[in-house]
Write a structure and sequence with these properties.
Helices cover 1% and strands 44% of the residues. The protein is mainly beta. It folds into three domains: 123 residues, Immunoglobulin-like (Sandwich); 111 residues, Immunoglobulin-like; 125 residues, Immunoglobulins (Immunoglobulin-like, Sandwich), CATH 2.60.40.
Length: 460
């Protein structure tokens, strides 16, 4: 106070930190030290009253999150938001004259890994840091909470999952003056990042086989002797923009039966868009090659399917014909015809027929290896390949094979022809491994050759 203004205004500002009563003593220090300093006390009450009329809900007339300032989505009973839900719209109803500050969001990780699985596949960083990894980012689009006046306002929560797991999201609604006399209130949401089986994940082959259907393993795919590759297409792009697993990575693990390790194998190639995959098989020994393709989305359960490849055995793509009008079909579909059977052949070559001509053809990339000619009576007959240059040549185009007979004495002998083929390996695919020559069943057929008395020793 001074002579010009004998009255001075003194203001005391209170900021409540929590509910309760506080006694505040104010002492005025006078310049004249001979006088007693006057003092007085103030009692401030900070309340924790619920804000009557303030409600929050998932619908304009559905206050299921908070009713009259009392939370219904509590920490013990939060609202569950599944992975497929990337946003949530909340309606705030204000009926009291109380200004509010900006709501606050706090996110706590409850667990890492895909929800519902017994063993979580957690990022390696977690074990190094000994702490839980962040699961979700949450943002709020708010059209402003101002002075209450029986108005409704909308607030949109946006969820962006950053790793598989479960998080607790706290949305804190705070009066502009906390505890004066109204308390802040929070509603809780449990956000799941990651789901079960990915319902839009399908894997099919060009011939219509379904390997994965709606995120679950479907059919076992079996590749026969003649199948050198399997193509499958991964389709997973119909969930929506929020789904982070539109392109699902695929890995392949293969192994053969006991004893065939390192002698069978497969390699996988991918298209640039990651949808089309081709598995190329390579067999160097008989057996069964088992491959498992694993699809591992980040936010969905992994799924796998099996490919089985039969290595070696009977080939159905080799056809042998002769130039004999009565017996043209020699070998087809993996078997010799009845007339050329190795048990009871019906074909007889007369004494004057000195050669036998055969045409070997196949639709596959095969090579003819050393043919074998077994004669039941080697003292009567000798057989040799007239055009030996065909050995080592590809069978992809028809291959002529001419057998020459040399009679040594009169008589009859059974000739059994054994032809082996090898499959030519694609360039660059395991070139250091040599295939087993007995990988495929041989082409085998027989006929009779007669050697006459008068001309038998002159046949060339």
């Amino acid at each position: 106070a001074n002579a010009a203004s004998p009255v001075e205004e003194l203001r005391v500002r209170h900021t409540c930190r929590g509910p309760g009563d506080t006694l505040v003593k104010v002492e005025l220090l006078l310049q004249n030290t001979g006088l007693v300093n006057p003092s007085f006390s103030l009692e401030k009450s900070c309340g924790e009253l619920p804000l009557q009329g303030f409600s929050v809900g998932s619908g304009p007339s559905a206050p299921d999150a908070m009713l009259d300032g009392v939370p219904l989505w509590t920490q013990e009973h939060p609202k569950v938001v599944m992975y497929v839900e990337s946003e949530m719209l909340l309606y705030l109803t204000e009926t009291a004259s109380q200004p509010f500050g900006q709501p606050r969001i706090h996110v706590t990780t409850l667990s890492n890994g895909l929800p519902g699985l017994a063993h979580h596949e957690v990022d390696g960083r977690r074990s190094r840091l000994h702490q839980r990894l962040p699961v979700v980012d949450v943002s709020l689009n708010l059209h402003g909470i101002g002075t209450a006046g029986d108005t409704r306002r909308a607030a949109k929560l946006l969820f962006h999952c950053i790793s598989p797991g479960v998080a607790l999201v706290e949305l804190s609604l705070r009066p502009a003056l906390l505890w004066d006399p109204y308390r802040p209130e929070s509603v809780f949401i449990k956000k799941t990042c990651g789901g079960g089986f990915k319902s839009d994940l399908n894997v099919t082959t060009p011939d219509g086989a379904s390997l994965v259907l709606n995120g679950r393993s479907a059919d076992l795919y079996e590749a026969d002797v003649l199948t050198n590759s399997t193509v499958f297409v991964v389709d997973s792009a119909s969930m929506g923009d929020w789904d982070q697993d539109k392109a699902v990575p695929v890995t392949l693990h293969c192994g053969g039966e006991h004893g065939s390790e390192g002698r069978v194998g497969a390699a996988m190639m991918h298209s640039t868009d990651g949808r089309r995959h081709q598995v190329d098989y390579r067999c160097y020994r008989r057996g069964l090659l088992r491959c498992k393709a694993h699809l591992k989305p980040r936010f969905w359960r992994p799924v796998s399917f099996e490919l089985r490849k039969t290595c070696g055995g009977s080939r159905q793509d080799i056809h042998v014909v002769s130039d004999l009008p009565s017996f043209p079909d020699v070998f087809a579909q993996g078997f010799a015809s009845a007339a050329w059977s190795t048990v009871k052949p019906e074909v007889h070559l007369a004494a004057e027929e000195t050669t036998a001509n055969f045409l070997l053809k196949s639709s596959s990339n095969l090579t003819l290896v050393n043919p074998i000619f077994n004669v039941s009576d080697t003292k009567t007959l000798k057989v040799e390949l007239k055009n030996a240059s065909v050995v080592g040549r590809d069978v992809v185009s028809p291959l002529d094979m001419h057998l020459r007979h040399k009679c040594l004495r009169p008589g009859v002998a059974q000739v059994t022809v054994t032809l082996r083929v090898a499959e030519r390996a694609p360039d660059g695919l395991w070139p250091h491994i040599e295939a087993d020559p007995t990988l495929y069943d041989p082409v085998t057929f027989s006929y009779w050759k007669h050697c006459g008395h008068e001309r038998g020793l002159l046949q060339l």
